[in-house]
């Protein structure tokens, strides 16, 4: 699976957000095969209006959204990279994730202790980032000897990685996160082999009070500027509101959203942004029984997509019949697309596009 890890200082709203995410799932559990995998890990359906539209046109009996995994990684504090507060365990947990949802406290409340004394999301973000960066610098130092040995033994990849390491380490020691280094795509590929925490894509999640859920506040504006400056994205949500929304039925929820001036739960944005952070795309299979969304990494080929559904589909892959989502909708479904010549037969080299509606042909 593809995993987003929720990180942030204590008392910023991580577990409130995580619970809201997984309660939404629990609410949907009657229909979907989703579950909480472990106490701190859950699978979350990815909201996608396209799936409902496709199901409507094809008169499918049900829809099955695709899902991502969300993990609550509590316990990061100042000094984590030196082992403070079980720091090493938390850093190891972050290493296993594919992307980071960094929750920042953008609400004031005297009853809820702020571990750093006062609300200041930019300082908090930098504090966490510094811990991750220190852990990366240490990890690079540890990896260097091994790489140097292998480079000496004529291992070309190790040599290339060692050269890159020696170039980026000083920049990182000066405070530049790995994701902010100016690198070519080849260098990025080499870097990914170094498993750095600060190379992971980040979504900043600004947790605000109810009154700022629609408009944001002075803190979220500062986070927005910081995120834009480093090429990251941010969302504004109120974790408490989301937790309340997660408890409501659809009718009540829509009413509550209206009073808050919101079109949809903020969680939807968090999940969608998380999904795009992971570099994924969605393809759809559709029939009378169900319309279902599936996930592959951007750049995946048609046989790889088939393999997500079943390994036999990949092994015996012959071809894929594909209709682009826009054609499917414009031409009123599969039959219309076929008649208009918009159903394409694609082979093994076809690179999947977001929204492709597919039938796979395969040998068994
Ligand atoms: P964590 O330590 O980051 O997991 O933080 P929690 O989710 O446990 O939240 C810490 C406290 O802040 C709890 O009492 C929450 O109810 C409260 N809290 C979380 N989000 C909000 C929010 O948006 N507004 C306010 N006022 N309180 C919040």
UniProtKB/TrEMBL annotation:
<feature type="domain" description="TGS">
    <location>
        <begin position="279"/>
        <end position="362"/>
    </location>
</feature>
<comment type="function">
    <text>ATPase that binds to both the 70S ribosome and the 50S ribosomal subunit in a nucleotide-independent manner.</text>
</comment>
<keyword id="KW-0479">Metal-binding</keyword>
<dbReference type="InterPro" id="IPR041706">
    <property type="entry name" value="YchF_N"/>
</dbReference>
<dbReference type="GO" id="GO:0016887">
    <property type="term" value="F:ATP hydrolysis activity"/>
</dbReference>
<dbReference type="InterPro" id="IPR004396">
    <property type="entry name" value="ATPase_YchF/OLA1"/>
</dbReference>
<dbReference type="GO" id="GO:0005524">
    <property type="term" value="F:ATP binding"/>
</dbReference>
<dbReference type="Pfam" id="PF01926">
    <property type="entry name" value="MMR_HSR1"/>
</dbReference>
<dbReference type="InterPro" id="IPR027417">
    <property type="entry name" value="P-loop_NTPase"/>
</dbReference>
<comment type="similarity">
    <text>Belongs to the TRAFAC class OBG-HflX-like GTPase superfamily. OBG GTPase family. YchF/OLA1 subfamily.</text>
</comment>
<keyword id="KW-0547">Nucleotide-binding</keyword>
<dbReference type="GO" id="GO:0043023">
    <property type="term" value="F:ribosomal large subunit binding"/>
</dbReference>
<dbReference type="InterPro" id="IPR031167">
    <property type="entry name" value="G_OBG"/>
</dbReference>
<feature type="domain" description="OBG-type G">
    <location>
        <begin position="2"/>
        <end position="257"/>
    </location>
</feature>
<dbReference type="InterPro" id="IPR013029">
    <property type="entry name" value="YchF_C"/>
</dbReference>
<protein>
    <recommendedName>
        <fullName>Ribosome-binding ATPase YchF</fullName>
    </recommendedName>
</protein>
<dbReference type="InterPro" id="IPR004095">
    <property type="entry name" value="TGS"/>
</dbReference>
<dbReference type="InterPro" id="IPR012676">
    <property type="entry name" value="TGS-like"/>
</dbReference>
<dbReference type="Pfam" id="PF06071">
    <property type="entry name" value="YchF-GTPase_C"/>
</dbReference>
<dbReference type="InterPro" id="IPR012675">
    <property type="entry name" value="Beta-grasp_dom_sf"/>
</dbReference>
<dbReference type="InterPro" id="IPR023192">
    <property type="entry name" value="TGS-like_dom_sf"/>
</dbReference>
<keyword id="KW-0067">ATP-binding</keyword>
<keyword id="KW-0460">Magnesium</keyword>
<dbReference type="InterPro" id="IPR006073">
    <property type="entry name" value="GTP-bd"/>
</dbReference>
<dbReference type="GO" id="GO:0005525">
    <property type="term" value="F:GTP binding"/>
</dbReference>
<feature type="binding site">
    <location>
        <begin position="11"/>
        <end position="16"/>
    </location>
    <ligand>
        <name>ATP</name>
    </ligand>
</feature>
<dbReference type="GO" id="GO:0046872">
    <property type="term" value="F:metal ion binding"/>
</dbReference>
<dbReference type="GO" id="GO:0005737">
    <property type="term" value="C:cytoplasm"/>
</dbReference>
